[in-house]
Description:
mainly beta
Amino acid sequence: QVQLVQSGGGLVQVGDTLILSCKASGFSLDYYAIGWFRQAPGKEREGISCSSSKDGSTYYVDSVKGRFTISRDHAKNTVYLQMKDLKPEDTAVYFCAAEEEKNPLCPVIVTHHIDIDYWGVGTLVTVSS
């Protein structure tokens, strides 16, 4: 079955670190750009980070730059989002998404509205103060 399986969300305290995982099943992430998005309560979904399989580029929205790190484990066909120094405003449902790349798609995958091949179902991150 072709899908993205997410894990790693939960309830944490301000300043904590959390790692989200996004594992591909049925296809190889080696040919896909990966984007991480989040949607906070009452707000629109925003793209926060991405990684290109084509040129290795990464991107972070200003609000997470320096705190979040995207990485790939090719052997596990998994992409991670490490989130450090979490803040209450990071509370949201986090989604990963994958789009096949012919040309590099980071940061386009998160900065523009494009058709995306696969979405994870989302995982809730709650940062408590």
